[in-house]
Design brief:
The chain has three domains: 32 residues; 44 residues; 116 residues, Ribonuclease H-like superfamily/Ribonuclease H (Nucleotidyltransferase, domain 5), CATH 3.30.420. It has ten helices and five strands, in the order ααααααβββαβαβαα. Strands 3-2-1-4-5 form a five-stranded mixed β-sheet, sandwiched between helices. The longest helix is centred in the C-terminal third of the chain and has 16 residues.
């Protein structure tokens, strides 16, 4: 830089040529002829603004790769400098801690037909075939009211079993279920409204029938029921 200033002084004061001045101070003529170009970030700013307006949820890396796929060869550091100067950084979302839910005591029935826990179980036979079991238990005396077995048990089958129990035993005041797909359907809600019954949801699945029968006896019971249904 100092040599260039000396050469420019010699040209202006001593009226010598550029070639002679550059040779005298030992600098290349191309360095004397170089003109600095002003930096223009207008193109990058325009493309980044267009991208963020069209895709407001993308971050820096997606914006950069999209620009590269469009054919722009801007340097990574340059794009990042302009990206941060435009304050386009997306804030990281913090996980919101939900307040602890109030635990309610489980309803304890005082007589039969007050609460019927209803639950589904999955199992497989010795040949690998899978099947489902619908278990309905009286919560007061742990009496197994019904066990329905099939490959598929939609809500219609659940309502049919409840109708059969309605004819021979009556219906309970409350049916306790979990959040399974069979229990949150509109068909079961309409059936309960028509029969004026309440559905109580619980989070943990409680396999009353398996606890009542024991593991080995439960396996023998389910296999016998499946064989009878297959026949």
């Amino acid at each position: 830089m100092k040599r260039r200033l000396v050469a420019e002084f010699m040209i202006s004061e001593h009226r010598i040529s550029q070639r002679q001045a550059s040779k005298a101070v030992g600098i290349a003529r191309t360095s004397m002829q170089y003109q600095r170009k002003a930096k223009s970030d207008a193109g990058v700013i325009e493309q980044l603004r267009t991208l963020t307006e069209k895709h407001p949820t993308i971050g820096f890396w997606q914006s950069y790769h999209r620009l590269r796929r469009q054919g722009f060869g801007w340097d990574l550091k340059k794009v990042y400098r302009i990206y941060t100067a435009m304050k386009l950084n997306i804030r990281r979302r913090r996980k919101k801690r939900l307040p602890a839910s109030i635990k309610q005591a489980l309803f304890v029935p005082q007589s039969i037909n007050q609460a019927w826990p209803v639950d589904f179980m999955n199992d497989s036979l010795w040949d690998g075939r899978k099947f489902r079991l619908l278990n309905i238990v009286d919560d007061y005396n742990r009496e197994v009211l019904a066990i329905e077995t099939d490959i598929s048990l939609p809500t219609v089958r659940l309502i049919r079993v409840l109708e059969q129990l309605k004819d021979c035993r009556g219906l309970p005041q409350m049916i306790r279920v979990d959040n399974g797909s069979e229990f949150i359907s509109n068909q079961l809600d309409l059936w309960c409204e028509g029969n004026k019954h309440h559905i109580g949801f619980h989070s943990a699945k409680q396999t009353y029938t398996k606890r009542l029968c024991g593991k080995r006896q439960w396996q023998r019971t389910t296999e016998r029921i499946c064989v009878q249904n297959a026949m």
